[in-house]
Amino acid sequence: MLFICQLLILTACALLLAWPVIQEERRDTVENIAIIDASASMRVSNNDTSRFERAVEKAIDLARTTAEGGGLFSAILADGDAHYIVQRAAAENVSDTVAALSELVEGDGKCTFGSADFDGAVELAEAVVVQNPDTDVTLFTATTYIDKGGIEVVNVAEKDEWNAAILSAVAEVKDNYYSFDVRVGCYGRSERLTVHCDVMGVNNETGEYGTIHMSRTEMFDNVDREFDISFGIEEQLDAGRAAVYSFSSVHVYIEADDTFRDDNSFYIYGGNKPVIKIQYVSNDPCIFFQNTLYVLRGFVTDDWEVELTTVTERDKIATEGYDFYLFETLMPRVMPIDGLVMIFNPGEGTIEGLGAEFSRVHNVNRDSTLAMGTPHPITEKLDATEITVSAYREIRLAEGFIELMYYEGAPVVAVREEKDFTYIVYSFSIHESSLAAVLEFPLSFYTVFNRYIPVTVPSRSYVVGSTVPVNARGNSLAVSGPELEKTVEEFPSTIDVGLPGSYTLTQAVRDEILQDNFYVYVSPFESNITKEVDALPLLERNKKTEYADRDLLVWFAAALLALLFVEWFLQSREYMR
After folding, report:
1. What pLDDT does residue 481 have?
2. What's the confidence (pLDDT) of residue 547?
3. pTM (2 decimals)?
4. What is the per-residue pLDDT across 329-369, written as a single tens digit (0 to 9) for each?
5. Distance (Å, whole) CA 110 – CA 112
6. Distance CA 149, CA 311 (A)
7. Which of 127, 141, 299, 478 has the most beta carbons within 10 angstroms of its beta carbon?
8. What long-range pairs does 125-131 form, CB within 8 A, spacing at least 24?
């Protein structure tokens, strides 16, 4: 034993003389990033606590743990447009970090009704990971991800959460009557649900006689989690009322004690089409214009109910009360000032209020073509070189007209746009030009109609987070909805809708107050609170491992001292013998 001990002492001395070191992986400062899912499905509330609140609490716990280790902490809120709440906060600022996170759940909180911007959140996280590749990124969510993309996912969902939802609802015309088609979902629980459909303002009736109540019950389980339900003519008649050919609104809803209430209702609008009045004036009505107006009525039938009036006598011409006036050859004495006015082949002289004077007719070569003037939306689909004329009337235009087409420098097509009316003048006859044979002209006619008689809103339903295009026939448009009150005066325009519910658009047209409605609903993707998603965006982590030399001298010195003590002990026992 003594010999072995002395041999080990010599070995330890040799190792000490060699100054031994080993390589050790070097880590930067401990750093954590918390990504908080702020999508609509995080609003699910159970036991008086929402998923979002639980996610924020876990992020606060992570912030405190990081501070205890002297590390840096960042928090990213993944709402509709991901952004930092705190960025690389030091340990000494942990109280400010906790305060900033706690503010997320104050009041109604910062959780949206839309979807989360995970692409943006991961991109923000990568900006930190580039600086410190050892940063740990954690997502607090309630969605299951198969491929986590290099991110640690903490699921904050609870077992007994479930949701019943109206995923979509539309009104479709079938055999001249409306049918109401509804898609319903139930997630997280097998449940028997009753879906209600209340139709108001049926066939222009009011009160009790103008309301139909229908309902249908279905069983939902883990296999059949979504159902399509239709309330058609048969259901309408069974409810004790006539079949629906018009309505003011439809309320589709579920009465369920689920853990997410914001998608239990849906409203359908658009059952009463606004009336557009068109007056066609001609002493000899042209079949081309008549057919064009009939085709136009067919094009816009989804949005408008078109009333067409034809006038052949000057004394019966109306100069107010119409949305669209078309004058061909037979002209009014005074111009209308309340709509879109088109003039073809005017006579010599002036029309009060027009701002143009017509003089002699010029007969030209039948193959003479026109030339484009100032570019304008109403002529962008027309090629002037394809339009020939054999005669045109000379016109002198006042200030305010835009000259759109010329014949050898003389204006033959012009437009005057004012706040309350628009005048479009063609100084030649449809019979003395090739305009009727130009395929793009009917399409141009449709473009003119849509420009000056615009649809207020192109759809009656939008998902939360949409940018909704709006327009107006009047000079302003009042918009009201959940936490939204504004007036729009520049058109076309857009409004952003961030909350579910009904929105109302109000405008004045010819001293008449007109209202349009649309409904904003929670995305069906968010209504599925038990969803499983294939993958998160991949977190790019170009980790470069660095090493540091670790000195082993102290360890071998300690071993030497221990061996010397053992050697001394063994020697003393030898002497005692």
Report:
1. 96
2. 46
3. 0.84
4. 999 999 998 899 999 999 999 999 999 999 999 999 888 89
5. 6
6. 70
7. 141
8. 125/33, 125/35, 125/74, 125/76, 125/151, 125/539, 126/539, 126/540, 126/541, 128/31, 128/33, 128/74, 128/87, 128/88, 129/33, 129/539, 129/540, 129/541, 130/542
